[in-house]
Amino acid sequence: MSDAHPPLRLHVPEPSGRPGHPTDFSYLRLAAAGSVARPPVDVSPVDTAELAYTLIRVLDDEGHAVGPWAPEADLALLRRGLGAMLRLRAFDARMLIAQRQRKISFYMQALGEEAIATAHALAIAPGDMCFPTYRQQGLLLARDDISLVELMCQALSNARDPMRGRQLPVMYSYKRAGYFSITGNLATQYIQAVGWAMASAIKGDTKIASAWIGDGATAEADFHAALVFAHVYRAPVILNVVNNQYAISTFQAIAGGEAATFAARGVGAGIASLRVDGNDFLAVLAASRWATERARANLGPTLIEWVTYRAGAHSTSDDPSRYRPADDWQRFPLGDPVERLRRHLIGLGAWSDEEHERTRLAFEAEVAAALKEAESHGGALIDNHVPPVASMFEDVYKEMPRHLREQLAQARAEWAQHGAHPAHPADAPDASAKEGQA
Ligand SMILES: Cc1ncc(C[n+]2csc(CCOP(=O)(O)OP(=O)(O)O)c2C)c(N)n1
Questions:
Q1: What is the CATH number of domain 31-310+332-375?
Q2: Is 189 in the pocket of ligand 1 (CB under 6 A)?
Q3: Across 144-165, average pLDDT
Q4: pLDDT at residue 437, as a whole number
């Protein structure tokens, strides 16, 4: 060992807050509302380097919309956005209770992050394809394409579950609503979205893709591979990184390090990149529109880091009191997205506390009624609903090929052989034979 050098050691980033010790949020690179320049959409990616290290914000502490990023948005759109966030919050709260009541096995809330998916959904167009993770249900609720009852039937895994029990609760799939089937393997959303966007360009279509990932999952190789393809081919895609400060119990610096932002990953890959206050509905709307315009004009991809805070547990299987201060969200400098838009609209005379309360209660009632209706169709944990064995083999090919038909018959025969009662009439031992005759 040379005397000239100290022993080598690794640096392991530590969270700046722990249970019982308030978080020091000074690690967040904040900027005052209205202080960041808005470049033209044809800016060269390298000239967004500064934007990747600051924070685009529109709503100031008094709820005024200030600066060059303040979007043109009529009051009807903003009221719709606030309503959609309230509806999403009511939906999540009710589903969380349903899990605690053992009606569903699992749930994931978007509490505290509602502005991101909601405003983004209002910036993209029908036909565009989102590749979401499990925390972007706001994309579906904001555009109201899918009924709450249908979403709940998926979470209940009941007879009306469009996924027929083949996906975890919250792992929705809606081609008609531009919501690509959720993959549990994180970061795959990125390569899928970039590939879809490239295909759209190859076909000469006008539709763009929107990819979603959390801070933690950016450490996956798929994230980086997707950036290379997006940059090289200028794929028409928006690359969203939701930095909600935690990946389950792991602080964001474990995936991101402390010297660079997640937005800076994009600049390094040759991609125009923005870092945006994700709890500021107006900033999300403005940045999403900017990125959308770039993609549609063949100017290439945009990576956007949305800075926010995951206010609830990671999932119903998680207990955040074990790894972070209980009052973190109250102390988070970017506040609550619902309260910030409410304040803005009240300041404009376009909303009131009374209307807010009335709307909140109306959504609570809508959600409660929808769950009652969804439960009337049963559920895996309510009436032991089990989909037919055949559903394991269906929907892969337009027509089931012979080898799968054989496997299905074998599965049914083995089920019968082991003496198990078929949970579904379609699984009776002679069902395959009858199907053969039909
Ligand atoms: C490839 C892969 N690795 C690990 C997991 C297990 N896992 C599920 S959620 C999660 C945390 C992800 O955190 P982040 O990307 O920050 O998203 P967030 O949940 O905060 O929205 C992990 C590690 C997974 N689903 N996929």
A1: 3.40.50.970
A2: no
A3: 95
A4: 40
- Give 134 Cα–ligand 1 centroid separation in angstroms: 10
Using one digit for the tens of pLDDT, what is the confidence trace for 7-35? 999 999 999 999 999 999 999 999 999 99
* Alpha-carbon 242 to chain mean position: 8
Q: Which of residues 319 and 396 earns the better pLDDT score?
A: 319
Confidence category of residue 2, pLDDT binned at 50, 70, 90: low
120 lines ligand 1 (CB under 6 A): no
Structural domain spans, the chain: 31-310+332-375, 387-436
313-348 pLDDT, tens per residue? Answer: 999 999 999 999 999 999 999 999 999 999 999 999
Give the predicted TM-score (pTM) of the model. Answer: 0.95
In this prediction, residues 276-287 reach a mean pLDDT of 98
Which backbone phi and psi does 305 adopt, to 5 degrees?
-90, 120
- Residue 322 CA to residue 328 CA, distance in Å, equals 13
Q: CA torsion sign, 373 to 374 to 379 to 382?
A: negative
The alpha-carbon radius of gyration of the chain (Å, integer) is: 24
Q: What angle do CA 254, 255, 257 make, to 5 degrees?
A: 65
Rounded to the nearest 5 degrees, what angle is found at the Cα of 215, between the Cα atoms of 262 and 222? 85
Question: Does the CA dihedral 121-124-128-134 come out positive or negative?
Answer: negative
**What is the Å distance from ligand 1's center to 218 Cα?**
9
Tokens found for residue 294: 């770039």
Q: Indicate if the pLDDT at residue 87 is higher than 50.
A: yes
Q: First-to-last CA distance in the chain?
A: 80
Sheet strands side by side (includes 237-243)? 129-131, 209-214, 237-243, 302-307, 272-277
